[in-house]
């Protein structure tokens, strides 16, 4: 390479753009616009409007761990960190107070990877054939495969903190108690017939989780 | 767990929602709005507008089996059962009258699973190397892999009924006779050159299937 | 096209194969060999070993509907219908006796499409925000989106029969009672802490569903 | 950055490998081993066995264009260019002699992008509603969407040459004449019933394309 | 098949459409409308508005090969050839003048398949463990796996021309010099700290590629 | 539900298994066997051999932060945490000493989500059009879209620790200095021609990163 070659390079860049006016340089980034949602994610923000703040979320901070579950769950999905859109990734910070529990739940379309930041938990998921349960501590990583019912219990003597990642940009949370006894008001007789729980047990938990729908 | 813990649970639920106002619980469901279509499917209906009827279709019913093919095909895709959107599933009810035929066709982007409900058919698909053909009856299931040319012939003595499932939410049907001789008006000389059919045969079938486009 | 051209065609076919000896004509079909399994499905059977029976399953037949659930479930996945491998489709026949129930369950990685063949059922799935429940009958189709907890109850006066399709070739079934109270032997205190069910209720259902694991 | 820092860098690299002995640097490349095939492609060759020749194919060369079709088709799929495995890409060189034709065919699971290198062709694909046909020449690019029946006809006065790309690493070719009249030996009465072609026409083309299977 | 049957076929077609008014025949084709973009691609143009020109691009033509790089790159993505939308394919024509170079670059989400049309190039991509470099000529095909840094150098004595295909419909180009020294104005001290290049070298190349951002 | 019904349930479970002997309950979990690798991941371990330790990794622990980069990178991919196989998730713990840097690199097939655990970093990625750079601290989350060149610099006064998640189960790391100047021994003249770096600069960095390959 001689020097003469290099002297023209800035000029070249200009020509390149002139001859390819609609050429898209960074189209594989699709930051969410929140007004239109599709099965693959939200509408893309135009590339020339992107800023670094589309890729940063600043809310993984301590906060009041509310009774009675003693849990604080901070989820960062494509709605809050718009740069996640279309990338198949999201995250959450979970703070579990002493004696606290992240109750039995399922993410219908996400696997979850849990990384302990502080404290100890008993983590587990259940399949029909086996219960996979283990006490984990700082330094441990635990994976919950997609669509499996799972839980966390603080098994230590301090607040437990974990960072978790999900394999979609818009994870959803279906807590078993909300599904069976919550404000979706699923009919008590249906619950009894399809779970074999006693009606008294169902009504008791509906009282706690906000459900009605007796019958 | 003691009773004191449980007494606070309803309160907790309220706090949870207050501190996460934009938290989406069921976003993996994307019921179709029909006005905007993308490669991954239609725009999602807002979650709070969903009803059970978005997940139900009531048209798998008997109907007049029209001559001359003696076939009635009832397709339920995301356009009709909007809850199918983005799920990679759809279905059809096929009624084939006596001597009826579902003629040679291809689904460009779907595999198909056929379950017999009544009667008997000869089902088959063809690859360059082998023809896979079998007489099937009530109790049988037949799979047609994606993009293969296939057919059904009523081989029994009553109306044959089958339920079929497709591996996309918007299946498409390309009947060979429509493609070659139908209202797309493909030029006769092109057909002759690319299929080696005789011109007389092409013109005869164009007369039957609505095609013109001689040349 | 004149006749001279056509006289040479058979000869051509021979040449084509000679010059492309490893050319695969039907490789998009990957019929399962059952010994090696991967995230995308089973190892493919060689194309020259395929027969039509790789694409047919003949077990969607009536059978004894066993008490106490009064349900008979016949699943056809890639293990039984090897042509399903890699196609993202499978199916089941469900027979539900009078008063029978397909109890609350989840398919961790499949959507489900239900087509009624005989009788009536109450079908439903539950999200945190709403319960989607409907009485459906012959002629109706119902879709259960991926990963949602759902159920069927025979609401008629005869055996109910449905054909269902799943959006994967190897569907899995996680019945809630098996998960919580079954032979996976999940510890009673964990169940109590993560579901808020009473210990007495848990022990009662463990007695019925085969679970032990007290503690 | 001062010089002292840099003096240790080679040492560092050694340490990095020592502390992460199983660390995989280039695992997203999965060059085909041909003995095990799965729905997602062939088994991967170990990374330390890869050479540049796994990524090069040298057969896009002129050759004898055989009568009677006057076509030479050179396909490069993952079987021949093993670095294509798992990448969703493959290619072909098509040479079409004067009056030659790439007859009506379908790729069951691939879209195709055609780039003219020499000469002129009439290219087209057909859907039920419309025939998309155009004369194209050097400088033109034509896309055939996945699973659509399509063809090429040399419409110029010299050999036409095109390079085509496919959206899978193992494209398959289903020529309509081979499917209907070829060595798969599909039964003549089935062809007649499902295509409405005359028996005489079918028998005539079976004579040319190697099919038997009368009945 | 007797003649009576055939006489009614045209009539049938009419009935078919009447009883299925919203039936979509070709929905697997999703030609881009350019106003709405999503992770899976652009909004679909309505099927009844499609023309053959949605599937043709006519710009793979010679043009002025600009100094100083001596390269002319003509990309055809879904923005220019709207029928590519959603199909996972696109292409480019690359003309490299004598002594010209397609400098080190990466396509963040695409594999690339290169087919030589004229001349000779040295092609290569680099992984941490090995550099895969080869002199290729007309008749050769080279595959660059997804996300790998790669380059082309004209190693012949005439203009080199290649056609390339990409495994997405909207490929993006990230040239290393543009990334490090270009108009994105990445801070010089950050470049120095994260690449170990000398500040003088960085400033020299920023002068050539348009970057500022010293610090 | 009356009591008589429940008394038979254990018996039912036995019958269910007897009548469906090959019924797979948890096949959507595909824990890696390390001997066979495919584009979709490793061969699955048989379900009856799974233990909870297939889903746990215990190595996210502090360790010696080696000079000269002052970085310790602990990656947990499907090779180490075999339950990750096929789930599209993996993770790493990154410890960056004072003045340390995670140098410019790219993951060819993964997006990355970074969650700060301790300290402060300057994080960034670069596209041709813009550099996205920000100082982030404990409580912040940063997303690097797939295939983009990116980096981290410890900008605080203590060791910085971050947990990161990747959108594949087998992430790969391509550090720019290793690619250009490392043990892959890319030829100096090729580097000069394709990056416009001065030969003296190239040779200097080859001395540091282990590369030879002059020419």
UniProtKB/TrEMBL annotation, chains A, B, C, D, E, F:
* Location in or out of the cell: Secreted, Extracellular space, Apoplast
Q: Where is the Cupin type-1 domain?
A: 57-203
The signal peptide annotation in the UniProt record is 1-26
Give the primary localization class: secreted
Q: What is the disulfide pattern of this chain?
A: 30-44
Q: Which CDD domains match?
A: cupin_OxOx
For the ligand (Mn(2+)), the binding residues are 105, 107, 112, 150
| Alphabetical list of InterPro entries matching this protein | Cupin_1 (IPR006045), Germin (IPR001929), RmlC-like_jellyroll (IPR014710), RmlC_Cupin_sf (IPR011051)
Q: Name one GO cellular component term.
A: apoplast
**Which keywords does the record carry?**
Apoplast, Disulfide bond, Glycoprotein, Manganese, Metal-binding, Secreted, Signal
Q: Write one Gene Ontology MF term.
A: manganese ion binding
Q: Where does oxalate bind?
A: 107, 112
The family line of this record is:
Belongs to the germin family.
Q: State the protein's name.
A: Germin-like protein
Q: What organism does the UniProt record list as the source? A: Trifolium subterraneum
């Amino acid at each position: 390479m001689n020097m003469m070659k290099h002297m023209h390079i800035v000029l070249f860049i200009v020509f390149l753009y002139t001859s390819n006016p609609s050429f898209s340089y960074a189209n594989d980034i699709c930051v969410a616009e929140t007004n239109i949602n599709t099965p693959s994610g939200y509408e893309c923000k135009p590339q020339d409007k992107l800023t670094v703040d589309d890729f940063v979320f600043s809310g993984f901070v301590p906060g009041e761990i509310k009774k009675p579950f003693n849990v604080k769950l901070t989820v960062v999905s494509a709605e809050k960190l718009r740069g996640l859109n279309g990338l198949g990734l999201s995250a959450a910070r979970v703070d579990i107070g002493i004696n606290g529990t992240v109750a039995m739940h399922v993410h219908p379309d996400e696997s979850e990877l849990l990384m302990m930041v502080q404290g100890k938990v008993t983590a587990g998921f259940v399949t029909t054939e086996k219960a996979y349960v283990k006490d984990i501590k700082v330094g441990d990583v635990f994976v919950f495969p997609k669509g499996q019912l799972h839980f966390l219990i603080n098994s230590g003597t301090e607040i437990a903190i974990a960072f978790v990642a999900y394999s979609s940009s818009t994870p959803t949370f279906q807590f078993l108690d909300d599904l069976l006894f919550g404000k979706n008001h699923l009919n008590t007789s249906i619950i009894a017939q399809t779970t074999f729980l006693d009606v008294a047990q169902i009504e008791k938990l509906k009282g706690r989780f906000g459900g009605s729908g007796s019958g």
